[in-house]
Amino acid sequence: MSICVIGHSNPDTDSVTSAIALATLMNAQGQDAKACMQSSADKLNPESKTVLARFGLTAPEELMDAAGQTLALVDFSDIGQGPANLESAEVVAIVDHHKVGDVTTNQPILFRAEPVGCTGTVLNKMFKDAGVAIPKDVAGGMLAAILSDTVNFKSPTCTDDDKAAVAELKVVAGVEDTEELFMEMLKAKSAVDGVPAKDLLFRDYKDFDMKGNKVGVGQLELATLDQVADCRADLMAAMAEVKADGRHSVLLMLTDVVKEGTDLVVLSDDLALIEGAFGGKLENSSMWIDGMMSRKKQTVPNLQNAFGC
Ligand code: MG
Ligand code: MG
Ligand code: MG
Q1: Which ligand ends up closest to the CA of 120?
Q2: Where's the DHHA2 domain (predicted)?
Q3: How far is the CA of 149 from the centre of ligand 3 (A)?
Q4: CATH of the domain at 47
Q5: Same domain for 131 and 234?
Q6: Are residues 145 and 262 in the same domain?
Q7: What is the pTM of this model?
Q8: How far is ligand 2, taken at its centre, from the CA of residue 97, in Å?
Q9: Strand pairing class (90-96; 110-113)
């Protein structure tokens, strides 16, 4: 029976391309393995679809139930992120770059986890250690995964090993310009065309309690603010509707990943308080905040201070 190589649920590009890469390595070493994923090919996220198409890779097979299967895990080792019945399946290998999770095994297994930015970086080392050449299309997928997971080297999780792997993989994959590849992926990920404004607002949205005030904060990661120029009025109308439903404030972070800053759109019962939180001045309900990328690490703490939480 084939070993099913599989990444985490709600798969990202690393989970998909690492399953392909490890299955390829295992096959080269004489093991019967195939790439799987916890998604159907048509429901895969737009970024991963773009990467598979660009490098001519076949989408991994859908596997939602692991009962009776032999598995190799990539990009996770938490039972909660695995397919159904993972506990009753036999896990024979784990390759990852996260904290060690709660999967346990009865036999000794191949377990390789490193504190780097992407599973693709670990797999690049494994191919080298094994003396196996990485096929061009597989290298392209691994390259894309590293750029995605490290946000083009800008994430605090990025290491020198990730940069070194990109330098090697781009040659194998025949990619001259990794900036261009990253932008193609980012544009696919942040596509807004045809998506209703309320869906965009709620794509990545959380409500917070600030001293008894309900405050909503949404975020859209964009390649350029031009992507939302045409739907800005619709987005504000959606925000007004959400605010009218018992909220003190609704904020929408329009984050320009390239310029590394956020156009913060604000509707609030106390605009001065929000301006004070970020030391800016609202014009037409928004203000540009240089360097603001993270809701968790930047936006919410500033709001909590301003509300006196
Ligand atoms: Mg992942
Ligand atoms: Mg990853
Ligand atoms: Mg990720």
Answers
A1: 2
A2: 182-307
A3: 5
A4: 3.90.1640.10
A5: no
A6: no
A7: 0.79
A8: 7
A9: parallel
